[in-house]
Amino acid sequence: MSLFVALSVSASGLAAQRTRAELLAENLANAETTRTPAGGPYRRKDAVFAAEPAASAFADAFHTELGGLTGVRVVEIVEDAREPEKRYLPGHPDADAEGYVAFPRINPAEDMVDLMGAVRGYQANLAAISAIKDMIHRSIDLLR
User: Fold this and answer.
1) 12 CB contacts (<8 Å, ≥6 apart)?
2) Residue extents of the structural domains in the chain
3) CB-based contacts of 99: which residues, under 8 Å, 6+ apart?
4) Of 39, 15, 34, 45, the residue nearest 114 (C-alpha)
5) What DSSP line would sit under 96-125, residue for residue?
6) Is beta strand 100-103 parallel, antiparallel or unpaired with respect to 85-88?
7) DSSP string computed for 11-77
8) Taking the C-alpha atoms of 104, 102, 76 and 127 in order, what is their torsion angle to the nearest 10 degrees?
9) Of all helices (H) and strands (E), which one includes residue 79?
10) Cβ-contact 96, 38 below 8 angstroms
11) On the CB side of 31, how many CA atoms lie within 13 Å of its CA?
């Protein structure tokens, strides 16, 4: 296995976790947004990950020798399709005729836990990249 392929796998994990963290932060920031340009309340967004072959200049020729290493990528961003949460707030500017306001179905505690998981995943990929970088430097030092 090439160290550069392992580096590529960790880099793809960094990018995917960054996207996930950005979406979770957006969800938290819009937890009380009742009106969007598209109309209605904000809809919670989630990233969907999928495995992808490790990027390498020789990956096509040596795929079997690489042991089938895969990276990860965001294949789509899905919006929550559930009905919004209704709260009785008759004085709110977005209240309907009955006095109910539609709020996003966002649980801040759940999104904070997910955000902590995304940050830990990002940190794990960063640690792997650092370890690979150290291995590459030591290999170069041995060849001197």
Assistant:
1) 52, 54, 55, 71, 72, 73
2) 3-143
3) 88, 89, 90
4) 45
5) -TTSEEEE----HHHHHHHHHHHHHHHHHH
6) antiparallel
7) HHHHHHHHHHHHHHHHHHHTTT----TTSSS---EEEEEEEEEPP-TTTTTTTTTTTS-EEEEEEEE
8) -10
9) strand 70-79
10) no
11) 11
Reported as a single tens digit per residue, the pLDDT across 69-126 is 678 999 999 999 999 999 999 999 999 999 999 999 999 999 999 999 999 999 999 9
State in Å, rounded, how far the first CA of the chain is from the last one.
22
Secondary structure of residue 132 in the 3-state scheme = helix
pLDDT over 60 (residue 63): no
Residues paired with 51 in a beta bridge: 72
